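Problem: given the chain below (570 residues), write out its structure.
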Amino acid sequence: MQRSRIGHDVNEAPSLGTCIALAITHVLVIFDGIIFIPNVLGKTLNVPADTLQFITFGTILVAAVFTFLQSRRRFGIGAGFILFVGSYSAFLVCSIDAVRMGGFATLATMSLLTVPIIFLYTYFIRFFRHIITPAVGGVVILLVAVSLVPIGLEIWTGTQVMTPDMSFSKLWVGCVTAVVLTLCMLFGNTALKLWSPFISIACGYVAAALAGLLHFEHTLSAAWFGLPPLAWPGIETNITTAHLPLLFAFSMAMLASMIENTGNIMLVQQISKRDFRRVSYDAVQGGLYCDGLSKVASGLLGTAVPSIYCDNLPLIEITGVASRRIGACGGAVLLVLAFMPKVGGFMLDMPGAVLGGLLIVIAALLFHAGIGLLTINKLSNQHGLILGLSLSVGIVAESGSYFGNIMPEALAPIMGNSVALGGFTAFMLSIIAYLMPKRSVQGTFKPDVSELPKLQEMLLHGKKKLLLSETELDTLMLCCEEVFCHMLEGDPDDQERYLTFRISKVEDRYFTEVVCGHKMDDINNFAVPDSFFSAKPEELKQLGMILFSKFARDVKHLEISGYSFISFVI
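Solution.
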């Protein structure tokens, strides 16, 4: 997939000034969300001022460190893309319950006890490759967009619902921000698109000043520099059966975070590379390991549970700059904000109408990005129904108008959250579909050409079980033989490795997956020679793949934890 709008992809480095300016723009969009849970906890519960200051400081510090680490790929930690970290709304209700039950020490313990869910899933992610797919990630991103629209409108209007008596000044300021950004994106040149977020925010600020909506309460009351009081809440060690409902609620929120973050990391890969071909599960693993460590760090500090954001990712498409250097600069900006409360206060003083107008455009771009993930590969009727049901369930949860009186309070973090409930539905339905009995055959072979007759024999014996016609058998045998030979070239001298072939009948198609324990060239990375008579020997080796491409459909090549997975459909 070619993305011509990208001016600087993830591996390129624009000027430092540009990176810092764009990093500040990313932070402007999400800073309120980063400290969302500490703010709500402070307003909802009787939290001592010293503790709240420490929790807020710790939340920003964790966001700074792990935003930087997400932009790296050292020791398998980090996705290597622009991924910002901050407090996550799915943990809001259970965090309030935890603080009410035993203070921030209980919150820290619940986080530490449930974070192994992230690490276990990440380590065994290759077993979930048919469960959490790019299509499932696309549904999650669509649900994020669905949930972002009412949030943007609420911030824009300053009310819980759009009311007829909404002030005209707020409507005007938000429209100025949204229209300027949209026009810059639609009709601007490369330079104008690059600076369009800043231009739209600046226009929004001017409109807000003219409308009398520009105030600086947080900025004026905050100190320039400072450290919070040392009010570490500690960790609760006296866990009893009374904590079990709370532990279950945190587990559900952790699972929702895991599913959404998988989709976020898939999405950022798609929009950050000009030559995007496939999702790298190694990057997904690195990003999830980093996310798990951020949750461990927040638990040890006693701060709000963090997660990866996608709300700011459309800025990559708006500006055309996906350089990981922006993520590193964003971490530095957040680090400065942790020690400079006045600068953080200035960001919090952004007029709600300006931020709301910006978020509505970002939600529109998230719809586009989610559809892009959904359409990477053709969906079967079964998976199309699963994803459609998941999207419908998420929209019902977002409405908050159904089944509210019969749901246990412990399930509130997932039952009232569109992303959590829709993602969980897709996860469970995909598991059920994968585990359902199918007509299938399987065989394991040594990586040697002499094993080809055994592969042919397996297919011949499976003809009746799979209900293959003669034509289908010949086609399947040709495709399997070509994949077998292609995978031999990846590591031909290692005789201890094996190739496993699994063929299943799915609806009216035959799905084949081949697994081996080494990496190899992308099966789609070949070109037809200009002339077969003058072709070089290495070009002639591709003739089998050219023949394979004429018969196989929906060809995928994944690499996870050192394993290669090639699948196709006939």
